[in-house]
């Protein structure tokens, strides 16, 4: 047990506890994750992911690592684009989520390597992947700087990192967005997944996550270059991309 | 106008092709290798149950008890013999239909024989229920390599009248067959405690992987997952097609474990695959459905291999 502390939503917990708490949240929501995503974002998460997939520009034969791939939305698209000569890894630190993703890929005729692993200690060699993606996962990581450095390490020179994450919404939308996040979201979570607490964590963790510019700086500090971001739906989410040279 | 007519004709013929299209996965859409008699009987009652038997509403106890025993249901013909005769007559009718329908290739000749065998099985079971000799058994299983080893206690009803192939939801609720209790054979079901989910996941992976190996003509990979008999057949088909590669893109796949039998010191698991495949890169996905019979030695000396592919009748 380490003595360092970090945030879990608005709570301050020890780093080890955060890992367990995050795991608990995703074990709890795994089976209804997609339904809830659709409901909570009004289907917007699909558009955000489609944009991310387009920005990734995966071509046949590419090696792609999808971190915190969860239910496999990105990995599924990447696997189709990379084709039979490509290599797309679906990874997540949460077994329940990974199980759902693995089965879903299999049901669409895709066999991809599926791996339970910690993004802060990636079990891959240096300079291996053409693309690394993490969608709605970085927020839950305890040491984001370490995770970003690992992502850079496994990228080939010229490879691209894509980070899709909730971000800081534009100022005029702040109030309605807060109302939605802290009232509607947990209520929806309770009604549909029977779990208000996990969705309260979701709202809180979004607020604690670095805003667009802070994350951009973090990616640059991790050694990525040409970092830019795209605000999606007025900053509700943002896609950050960076290249390793 | 002429162009329009040509376009219309092309459209109509294309649409009729779509209507008839059944995709052909590895093996060319044929049955070969080990065949499960229990699966064979899925075709036995054909449209008879849905058209002639009353549908009992009793719930089914076990998911794998789903295959029904339609011959035990009351029939308009009255009694078991009526059912058997009805099945036989229907068999002849369908047989002649396919036989003269054209476009069925060699299948037209085999189908009546299969239906005859099935009708023979009905008669056998009727005799057996009456406590007569077991001579009929050989007759019923004459087309099975392991006759008598896997007597299915639970038959199955298929709503073949729908023309959409075999559909699990069309199963009739189960009525246990009393005669089955006295047979020493393994029931056609899944042993308690068997991890069907993991098994089916592996089966789906094998299916997808083997389609890829089949497309490439990678006989070494096929060899890893097939029995010698199936491997020989697949290798022959690959040699027949020569340098030409096949294309089978599995778009969606679902698997259902129909049952596990024990015969000749081997487990025989019948897995029904349903889904959509694209037979060409630009083609539309087409439905497919077939049963893979997978075997594994009872002593566990090796893993599951594909021992036979069995087509599901329409």
Key terms:
heterodimer, A: alpha/beta, two-stranded antiparallel sheet, 23% strand, globular, B: 314 residues, alpha+beta
Low-confidence stretches of chain B: 12-20, 44-109, 130-186
How many DSSP-defined strands of chain A?
A: 9
Instruction: Provide the spatial order of strands within the biggest beta sheet of chain A.
Output: 5-4-3-6-7-9-8
Most extensive interface: pair and counts? A-B, 8 and 14 residues
Number of helices of chain B: 10
- Whole-number average pLDDT of chain B? 63
Q: Which sheet architecture does the biggest sheet of chain A show?
A: 7 strands, mixed
Largest sheet of chain B: 5 strands, antiparallel
The run of helices and strands of chain B is: HEHHHHHHHHHEEEE
Instruction: Give the end-to-end Cα distance of chain B, rounded to a whole number of Å.
Output: 39 Å
Q: How is this structure best described in words?
A:
The complex is a heterodimer of chains A (245) and B (314). The termini of chain A are far apart. Chain A is globular. Helices cover 47% and strands 23% of the residues of chain A. Chain A has a 7-stranded mixed beta sheet, with helices on both faces. A two-stranded antiparallel ribbon of chain A has the order 1-2. In chain A, α1 packs across α8 and α7 packs antiparallel against α8. Chain A is an alpha/beta fold and 245 residues long. Chain A has helices spanning 15-29, 33-41, 44-56, 73-82, 95-107, 144-154, 174-193, 196-208, 212-221; strands at residues 5-8, 11-14, 63-67, 87-92, 114-116, 129-135, 155-166, 225-232, 237-243. Chain B has 314 residues and is α+β, with helices and mostly antiparallel strands. Chain B is 40% helix and 16% strand. Chain B has a 5-stranded antiparallel beta sheet with strand order 1-5-4-3-2. In chain B, a hairpin with a 7-residue loop joins β4 and β5. Chain B is globular. Chain A binds chain B through residues 84, 103, 106-111, and chain B through 201, 204-205, 208-209, 212, 249-254, 275, 277.
């Amino acid at each position: 047990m380490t003595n360092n502390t970090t945030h879990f939503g608005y709570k301050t917990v020890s780093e080890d506890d955060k890992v367990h708490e995050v795991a608990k949240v995703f074990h709890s929501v795994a089976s209804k994750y997609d339904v809830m995503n659709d409901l909570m974002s009004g289907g917007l998460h699909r558009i955000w992911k489609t944009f991310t997939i387009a920005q990734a520009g995966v071509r046949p034969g590419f090696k792609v690592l999808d971190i915190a791939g969860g239910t496999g939305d990105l990995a599924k698209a990447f696997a189709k684009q990379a084709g039979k000569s490509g290599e797309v890894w679906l990874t997540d630190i949460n077994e329940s989520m990974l199980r759902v993703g693995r089965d879903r890929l299999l049901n669409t005729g895709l066999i991809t390597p599926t791996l339970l692993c910690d993004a802060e200690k990636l079990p891959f060699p240096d300079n291996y992947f053409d693309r690394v993606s993490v969608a709605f996962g970085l927020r839950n990581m305890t040491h984001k700087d370490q995770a970003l450095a690992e992502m850079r390490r496994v990228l080939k020179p010229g490879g691209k990192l894509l980070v899709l994450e909730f971000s800081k919404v534009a100022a005029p939308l702040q109030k309605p967005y807060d109302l939605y996040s802290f009232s509607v979201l947990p209520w929806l979570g309770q009604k549909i997944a029977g779990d208000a607490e996990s969705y309260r964590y979701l709202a809180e963790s979004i607020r604690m996550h670095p805003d667009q510019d802070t994350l951009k700086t973090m990616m640059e500090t991790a050694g990525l270059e040409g970092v830019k971001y795209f605000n999606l739906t007025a900053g509700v989410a943002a896609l950050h991309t960076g290249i390793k040279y | 106008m002429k162009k329009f007519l040509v376009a219309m004709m092309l459209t109509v013929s294309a649409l009729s092709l779509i209507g008839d299209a059944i995709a052909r996965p590895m093996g060319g859409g044929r049955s070969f290798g080990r065949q499960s008699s229990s699966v064979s009987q899925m075709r036995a009652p054909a449209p008879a149950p849905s058209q002639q038997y009353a549908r009992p509403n009793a719930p089914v106890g076990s998911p794998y008890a789903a295959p029904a025993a339609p011959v035990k249901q009351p029939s308009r013909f009255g009694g078991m013999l009526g059912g058997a005769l009805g099945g036989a007559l229907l068999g002849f009718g369908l047989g002649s239909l396919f036989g003269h329908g054209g476009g069925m290739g060699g299948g037209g000749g085999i189908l009546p024989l299969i239906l005859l065998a099935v009708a023979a099985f009905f008669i056998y079971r009727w005799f057996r229920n009456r406590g007569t000799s077991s001579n009929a058994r050989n007759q019923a299983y004459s087309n099975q390599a392991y006759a008598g080893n896997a007597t299915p206690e639970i038959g199955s009803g298929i709503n073949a009248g729908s023309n959409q192939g075999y559909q699990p939801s069309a199963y009739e609720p189960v009525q246990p067959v009393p005669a089955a209790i006295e047979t020493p054979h393994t029931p056609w079901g899944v042993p308690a405690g068997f991890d069907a989910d993991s098994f089916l996941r592996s089966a789906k992976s094998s299916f997808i992987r083997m389609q890829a190996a089949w497309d490439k003509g990678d006989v070494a990979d096929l060899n890893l997952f097939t029995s010698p008999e199936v491997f020989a057949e697949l290798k022959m088909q690959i040699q027949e097609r020569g340098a030409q590669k096949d294309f089978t893109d599995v778009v969606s796949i679902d698997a259902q474990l129909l049952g596990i039998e024990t015969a000749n010191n081997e487990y025989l698991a019948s897995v029904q695959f349903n889904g959509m495949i694209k037979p060409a890169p630009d083609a539309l996905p087409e439905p497919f459905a077939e049963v893979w019979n997978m075997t594994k030695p009872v002593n566990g000396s090796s893993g599951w291999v594909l021992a036979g592919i069995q087509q599901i009748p329409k």
